[in-house]
Amino acid sequence: MSDTPKMICIGTFAGAHGVRGEAKLRSFTEVPADAAGYGPVSTEDGRSFTLKLVREAKPGLLIVRSPEIATREEAQGLAGTKLFVPRDRLPPPDDEEFYYEDLVGLAAITPDGAPFGTVKAVVNYGAGDLLELTGVPGEKGVLLIPFTKDAVPEIDFDTGKVTIDPPVYEEVESEDDETAP
């Protein structure tokens, strides 16, 4: 087992605010203001920021200060930078709840128990959450499965497995496929 703590993304910098180095922060936490309250945050490249909440600009968007950000240009340069905290700094989830990061690494199986790869990530490209699976038999690269109760009927953290019942898509012949007389 790795000694490196599991990191959870709690938000992302969204640009500069004002002229004195304040930054916009898009919060991914249930209570948006909590993103500034979990202690120092880290970036993927190892930088650390101590955030102080100035105010909530609109739902999910905070204005923050950090001693590590001195100018507007520095704040603007951080736009798009993801911010992480160790998993153990976050509150424990309620029953029947979990952090998406807890799914990463679980073995995927079919309803009959056959291996169906490993959960690599949970992603969302705008149309809903998807499980990204690797090592799926017969698939090269990754396979995306809708993260719905129908497609993912069971998650068992005790056994480290997630049951996948992938949707079946039928090929539909389009009008373009028909040959003109």
From TrEMBL:
Subcellular location per UniProt equals: Cytoplasm
Q: Which UniProt keywords apply?
A: Chaperone, Cytoplasm, Ribosome biogenesis, rRNA processing
Q: Which residues form the signal peptide?
A: none
Q: Any keyword Cytoplasm?
A: yes
A GO cellular component annotation here is: ribosome
Keyword Cytoplasm listed: yes
- Principal location: cytoplasm
Q: Name one Pfam family in it.
A: RimM
In this chain, composition skew of type Acidic residues spans 168-181
Q: Which GO terms describe its molecular function?
A: ribosome binding
Family the UniProt entry places it in: Belongs to the RimM family.
Assembly and partners are described as: Binds ribosomal protein uS19.
Q: What is this protein called?
A: Ribosome maturation factor RimM
Q: Which organism is it from?
A: Aquisalinus flavus
